[in-house]
Amino acid sequence: xxxxxxATKRDAQGTSASRRLRRAGQLPGIIYGASGDALPVxxxxxxxxxxxxxxxxxxxxxxxxxxxxxxxxxxxxxxxxAFKPQVLHIDxxxxxxxxxxxxKVPLHFVGDDVSPAVKLGGCMISHVANEIDVQCxxxxxxxxxxxxxxALEAGQSVHASQIKLPAGVELVLHGEGDPVVASxxxxxxxxxxxxxxx
Length: 198
Hints:
It comes from Thauera humireducens. One of its GO terms (molecular function) is 5S rRNA binding. It contains 5 helices and 13 strands. It is of the alpha+beta class. The chain folds into 2 domains: 3-94, CATH 2.40.240.10; 101-186, RNA Polymerase Alpha Subunit, Chain A, domain 2, CATH 2.170.120. It has a 6-stranded mixed β-barrel. A hairpin with a 6-residue loop joins strand 5 (69-80) and strand 6. The longest helix has 9 residues, at 15-23.
């Protein structure tokens, strides 16, 4: 799914210029990285606000039409107002078709309701992580990664390294070993709890 939206170059920089833009329903932002300098731009606030509500917007390669010139980017950072539903600033990073990029991708869990842990073991399945770090070329970026829990047994966990990733996509681990993404936890019954207490 290709998401494309428009932006305009902005010349005026600084806090008061940004405040004026926000009052006019505009959202200041920046496009940086890869080839080219950092490019200050403005977006239509409401359009971006609605796009940010879509999960796919956070894990997709996006196209920004800046005054007729197309930039291929990924979302890197958003600053939100402390209490108003307002985006204050947004950052995008350019991506090159032939360079691997690093991005967080959402996890979609399936099959937990039919797993032996739930059906036979009386377990609750806890989703410990809702996204993983991956590295791939822009063309291989998945919108989400599916985690099949249908074979999960009582007391077992699924680790990041056990997730089946699409072709061309690698898992990125950050030195904390192999994190758990979901686990089957026994739900203690009242009677069982009393027996242990005695």
